[in-house]
Amino acid sequence: MQNGQNINCPYGTVMANHLGGGGSFPQTSIILPKSGNQYYVFNVGMSDSVANNYINSIFTEFDVLSYCVVDMDSNQGKGKVILKDKVLSDKQHYYNTAMTAVKHANGKDWWLVKADCFSHRLQEFLVREDSILGPFYQNITDTGDFCNFLGTIRFNNSGTQLLQVHYGKTINGLYVRNRVDLYNFDRCDGSINYKQYYMTPMDTASYWNWDKKADICFSPNDSLLYMSNFYTIYQIDIYDTAIYNGLFIHGPDTLLDYFPALSFNGF
Fold it and tell me: Which residue, 25, 42, 45, 22, is CA-closest to 33?
């Protein structure tokens, strides 16, 4: 796309060059409608100094949230980036790229939600066709004791509940990451209230890299959760308050040598 080179590089291109212009982190970008045939593209990224820490295995974090505006009527209908790398938040300490959005109760605007599990909070932005308000901060309740680098956040289909799947818990000295926190969400004012958490087993013996959580989603009627682990799928009933109510649904259906870990298929 015209002017689309090196998107998500407001503070340097070290990470873009390292990844060859692509990306390998879940929920790094999200597209929301602006007005007419224009769209916001929100991105989570790294400044050059933070990217060098990641590349040299010193420390992993993401420190900038930015956006671009794309006009799909430009360039003879092929689209053009008309505003590039506008910074919303910088000097952040995001442990992962988890980010999602849900439509405001007014049916027009959007709530953009960015996870910040190191600070035990969520950042929210009210996205309008002509402006972006925020960040607003929601401190959250959780019972985890560490953040998962590949964690994600998901809304249910009605936008009334939010899942966070980046907290983990230490049990008997083992960092167990097969955990999900459930929150109620108010689409009018953006308030978030903790409800409870669930966990599924993490098999540390059957698979070479453990059967760890990959992602999660709601069922179409919002009553069930489906946790996609590396090799198995569990179903969680959110009307059952038992923390370990996860029901085993499916495992590998072929030899592991040929099995694509479910983490790559995610929901």
Answer: 42
How far apart are alpha carbons 177 and 200 in whole angstroms?
9
| Domain range list for the chain | 143-267
Contact 137, 122 (CB under 8 A): yes
Identify which of 204, 212, 198 has the alpha carbon closest to the alpha carbon of residue 247. Answer: 198
Note the pLDDT tens digit of each residue in 56-89.
999 999 999 999 999 999 999 999 999 999 999 9
C-alpha–C-alpha distance, residues 82 and 23, integer Å: 22
HSE of 6, CA atoms in CB hemisphere, 13 A: 11
Using CB atoms within 10 Å of the CB of residue 69, give its burial: 0 to 12 exposed, 13 to 18 middle, 19+ buried.
middle
- The pTM (predicted TM-score) of the whole model is 0.92
